[in-house]
Amino acid sequence: MTLYHGTNVDIQSIDLALCRPYKDFGRGFYTTKLRQQAQKMAERVARIYGGSPVVNVYEFDNSLLKTSILNIKDFGITPSESWALFVMNNRNRAFTDFNNLNCNFDCKYDIVCGPIADDDMTMLFRQYQSGLISFESLIKGMTFKEITSQYSFHTEKAVQFLKKEGVL
Fold first, then answer.
1. Enclosing domain of residue 11
2. Measuring CA to CA, which residue among 58, 63, 69 is closest to residue 33?
3. pLDDT tens, the chain, 168 aa long
4. Number of domains forming the structure of the chain
């Protein structure tokens, strides 16, 4: 399958140490199957950090998602309570239970697949945890208007299976 990563540079080599922590599925290299989604991210990154939008293109053998070679956490394409909890935990700087299966701070999962959450979620998390909004309201507020999926690569073992095809 073809995967896209939107940024402001042509990535010659993926360096997981440069990836930011506290993202939806933990520190990792995030990709999407949707070229348009990656293009929007590239434009956003270039606007924030300067430079020009660049979409890096990779090929990944998705049959690896069905093997035991890699430890995969797949939430599918529909937001769920387990997905929401996982995202809340990974975005929470105060969460410290690294052994918990509902977080990936320790990169226990080589690859995590699932819906893309909206960037403005801190208030939603607080409202949900305080009982001010329902789970359904949390999911509605967390999810992009168009359901899209992301594939995040968290270990060197996983990254080695991404084959760079070029840039757009």
1. 2-167
2. 58
3. 999 999 999 999 999 999 999 999 999 999 999 999 999 999 999 999 999 999 999 999 999 999 999 999 999 988 888 998 999 899 989 999 999 999 999 999 999 999 887 766 667 877 888 899 998 888 777 765 566 789 999 999 999 999 999 999
4. 1
